[in-house]
Amino acid sequence: MGTGSYIVKGLGNDKSFNSASHGAGRRMSRNAAKRRFSTKDLEEQTRGVECRKDSGVVDEIPGAYKPIEQVIDQQRDLVQVVAKLKQVVCVKG
Fold first, then answer.
1. Which regions of the chain does DSSP assign to beta strands (E)?
2. Which domain holds residue 10?
3. Is residue 61 part of a domain?
4. pLDDT digits 0-9 by tens, 14-25
């Protein structure tokens, strides 16, 4: 919802079956995110992004996901970064 996206090109690594992560992946469950974060947290973490900022999408807060930069760094042998996109709009639910 607010951490950006990457466009990558696969490097054809046979050991990974020519595959790579398609996202950062959650670091906590939806229910855990709802318990831990508030709509105020959501507003802060998505500042500058046009999106819903209500309790119905708190479980999608950026803090519920692994840091995308770390995920990209950990698969440098699988992908080449072509571009990093800055989030400006996010449509959920």
1. 5-10, 79-85
2. 5-85
3. yes
4. 999 999 988 889
